[in-house]
Design a protein that fits this description.
- With 279 residues, the chain is α/β, with parallel strands linked by helices.
- The chain has two domains: 134 residues, no CATH class; 96 residues, Endonuclease, Chain A (3-Layer(aba) Sandwich), CATH 3.40.960.
- Helix content is 44%, strand content 14%.
- It contains 13 helices and nine strands.
- Helix 6 runs antiparallel to helix 7, helix 6 packs across helix 8 and helix 7 crosses helix 9.
Length: 279
Amino acid sequence: MLVEHQTRADLFASGLTRRAITQAVASGALIRARRDRYLGEGTDDAIVRAVRVGGRLTCLSLLQLMDVFVLRNAKLHVHMKGNASRMRSPHNRRRRLERRSRRGVRLHWLPLSEPVPASACVPIVDALAHAVLCQEPRAAIATLDSALHKGVIDIDQIAEVFGRLPAKYSVLRPLVDGRAESGPETLMRLIVRMLGCSVEIQVEFDGIGRVDLLVDGWLIIECDSQEFHSDWETQVSDKKRDFALAALGYTTLRPTAKMIMQAPEDVIAAVRGLLAAHA
């Protein structure tokens, strides 16, 4: 995501006068994030806040703006230059508000992969490296899967991400698979792998369609989300697919995305029960 801030010198060079800059800030056409740092109208508040404290938006906060899957995040993730000793403290009437907001800021200091002098966001490779460091392994893999599936990065850039990380994180790389169509699907895949099962992704059945996961050659797992499976017509269609697959000897389990993300122990118990019964 390319969002650049401008200095007063940049604005003067573009033809604006001091008066025009003041009017643009007053009208909202320009946002004065902090001293000598201006952003365009409509810039997302997370980016503005990151620039305001003297850094760039990164990690989970930036990825959420790019619609990449993040399991959970309640903080503003900001990258700071290596020579920055602290966040900036604006001396104006918003100072108290800014101090309060900083309690929810997570700072990142890892040097960037490339210089971005005017950018208000870090490069995507760095944002993903920060995200791996900030999350538990299963969530990190789901984030990488999502970025790959959405075309935010390619497979070569995945190698760059791991090149930015300590060597111990290399064990996660073979688990990344861009065929996963959602974060919950990745989390579900990791659950069945943890249980010692073989798993195939996005398997096509003639006359029926594609399923999310095929486990041990007989158990089909479909990861349902409210976004795509809430209306009755879709539920009827899903049941018809399940019946067609049952006629071929397959068992279908449909955990919701919420169950996978928030109650994985219940999902694990259900899969274990089916595996035991099938054995």
